[in-house]
Amino acid sequence: MKETMLWINGQWQDTKESYDLKSPYSGEVIAKIAKASVQDVERAIEGAQDAFLSFRKTTAYERAEILYKVVDIMRHRQEELAEILAQEAGKPLSASSAEIDRTIATYQFAAEGAKQTMGETVPMDAAPGAGDRIGWTKREPLGVISAITPFNFPFNLVAHKLGPAFAVGNTVVLKPATQTPLSAIVMAEIFQEAGLPAGALQIVTGSGGELSDTLVTHPFVKKVTFTGSGKVGLSIKEKVGLRKVTLELGSTSRRHQ
Prior knowledge:
Blueprint: E1 2-3, E2 6-8, E3 11-13, E4 17-22, E5 29-35, H1 38-55, H2 60-76, H3 78-89, H4 93-113, E6 121-123, E7 134-136, E8 144-148, H5 154-168, E9 171-175, H6 182-194, E10 201-203, H7 208-217, E11 221-228, H8 230-239, E12 244-249
Parallel strand pairs: 1-5, 8-9, 8-11, 9-10, 11-12
Antiparallel strand pairs: 2-3, 4-5, 6-7
């Protein structure tokens, strides 16, 4: 049986506790998943902050090349990745393969977007005495991003968070859904092979209820991105303070009676 570990500072880290991951199709235990502690999350966030100080200095070309390599690796491992998704999410292989196709496209969009980060010039002559001056803006990476993802499209919704963050030089602490951690864990291997610097991606698995407070309130975290239920999203919004936050909540197919 597969036993997973946390991905912290470019190394696999064991934990004292774990939980059983069961197939939603058969109920069979398919893996034992490392259960992170609050201390593990703190260490991951601190490592992401250290990695950010150097990763932010990489060029757009270098970041785009990492993402293009991720695309290439995923294409070569597409069948394997679809099987991981089918196993942990209970999707048919046809649907799993379609999600991998979409995920590859998402990382390709991010790679292309890495070279499109632009500022703007600002004419200053609206103010007296500044007729011969021009201001300009430049976009800068924020820092450490806490990313919390759901179970329904685990490869692609992780890609929606990792791809854009890495494209512009941010680092990420990723907490995948408890039902679908395997798809996130395999991305650690892929990003390492693609040349992402150690510490730029941290993966902590376990209970969202136990870990979310640290993920959204730690002082090194500059933005929180969450996809999931409205109830949890509202709770996160109340805790993030002045940090930036992106929330994708609820389901457009849900009927409210």
